[in-house]
Fold each of these.
Amino acid sequence: MNPTKFVKPKSLKDTHHNYCPGCGHGIIHRIIAEVVDELGIREKTIAVAPVGCAVFAYDYWDFDVTEAPHGRPPAVATGIKRVLPDRIVFTYQGDGDLAAIGTSEIIHTANRAENITVIFVNNTVYGMTQGQMAPTTLIGQKTLTTPYGREVTRDGYPLKVSELISVLDGARYVARGTVTNPKNITITKSYIKTAFITQIENKGFSLVEILSMCPAGIHMSPVEALNWVENELTKCFPLGVIKNV
Amino acid sequence: MSKKNKFLLKINYENCKGCEYCIITCPQKVLSLSDEVNKLGYRFVKIINQQNCNGCGRCYIMCPDYLIEIFSATD
């Protein structure tokens, strides 16, 4: 028996992870590990994990990972990158972390053109606390804190972080992908790879937003959640490269 | 006689959470959900048509728990 290219990447540990069935985090962890392996940067990669479901990312990735307070990974990554400029530093954040409590950090980090990469996992809810409304929740979407659906007059509109960041001069590469089928996963992996290369070439700030499934948070079965992300979420958050300079 | 590649799927059943992403993605209907449950309490994915596997890797790409690995052997 010979291994094909479809075997677990070396940058992933054998740990069994604690995510719910159908959670998109596992897929995103794997494609990041594959990109790190392909670029051969495992020994000099430093990840900054968020507060949220991915808080245990250090248990799953086999490279250096540190923790940051809620919403502050871009600030921590800025410090690491300035002290160790030869390292590849990326943050891994959810929408509650990056788009709500960490809005200030992400905007100013992008505006300063800090040479880091941000992986932004958008699943429209606060998944770890069982699905409260986040800034990225769709209009009309039912969550624990909006049981009759999100209303524009009361709760405002879904925050389009990637478009917001792309207008800043400091942002060099901004793209949005999803992980709902093998084609989209491959495309998203190419976005992550381009973002890492942007950092390796010292061009400046790069952000990849990934639309992900949170079946437990949006109260659907995994397959329903997958179809919902593919058919509904992508209408509000169009996929593709938003900025590449 | 032409040599044909055979593919062998290896699934870690004990950690499977039964999300069914691999089942809906497999074009050859190699996988199915078992009626039994594993130690975690989930119905896990089992292989029903190993001979149909063409090694496309779609199940490996979709598995959120990276439990599927694919090996090849030449006849």
Note: The two ends of chain B are 10 Å apart (CA to CA).
Amino acid sequence: MNNPIDRKEFVKLIQENKGIIFKICNSYCHNKEKREDLAQEIVYQLWRSSHSFHANLKFSTWMYRVALNVAISYYRKSKRSDTMVSLSDNLIDIENEDDDIEDEYEKNRKLLQQFINELKELDRTLIILFLEAKSYMEIAEILGMTETNVATKIYRIKDQLKQKTINFIH
Amino acid sequence: MEDEYLKKIWNSPDSEIKDFLNINDQSFELTQTRKAKSKVKSLIFSKIIGITLGLGWILFMFILIYYCVFYTPISLGKGFFVGSLSMISLSTSLAVFLYVKDIFTLKQIDNSESVTDTQLKLASLQLSIIKSVRVSWLQLPFYTTWYLNYELIMHGGIIFRIVQILVTGLTTWFAIWAFRNINYQNLNKKRVRNLLQGVGFYSVTQALDFIKEIDNFGNDR
């Protein structure tokens, strides 16, 4: 394969961006073993698609597109076998573990992750990209929609999050 | 939670990350080999099985037609036999063609295209099974005509003729009904669902729901 990215450079890029891959896997796969499998699938597909990477596209845009497409497809394929855990169930767990969790960030991060896992596949991509501090323009480019639509949908998702947070507190 | 706070907690360090996906040049090579063997080929594998079975059936029909055309005398029975088998082969060929088309589409899917475009193509591919199923049903009436000949028609008796007309008529009606009704709009109908049960009705409806979701998601794309 004639790749514009050298293999060593590619492995280095993966290591640099593994945090993003982890978060995407975490949002689309609840099982730890399957998460590793999904991560490997993402790496494989990134390498396989690397010939399609060209200079007029930002590396992150290209990487997010491939990683999210693979994650959604993987999620949809294994959806039937995976048991989804409801938010309310997990909130109880989190409440019970309150004493053990000293770090406020850790508790809220789990809550946020749980909320993301509850969203529909495409809404999940939006909020992940928003939290990764991507501009509306880049999100629109990754997802293939308009910036206005991105803004509207992010506003709605944040509103849902706000409601869930209020419900959780009370 | 405020935007900045959300981003801050999202980016707060996760203890699991450091043990996650630790690849180097050697393990990368192994990953690629393993994945090339499993995931990519498995996507196309089911279609290839369908194509192989279809081609096997067409070949079998072709041998029978060839033998009948060149090695039997001209008769009414020969006409029914060759005509019926030709129609069965034609219908199977169409279904095989749709499967081949799916493989080409599958190979053209590019994960580096926008998420909505790629997912739309993948979901549409899942729905294409509907087209193959509806085309396949068209061959049904010809399984009730291939054995007919002059002797059976003229001397088979009134009961045979009535039963034959009824069976061929009903299968023809059913084949046309199935061809016209097996489509995305009718997936909520019980009869259509039953016809798709054996070929993955669940994945078809899931794909359809997802296409609707993509449409709603990017309605002003």
Note: Chain A has nine helices and no strands.
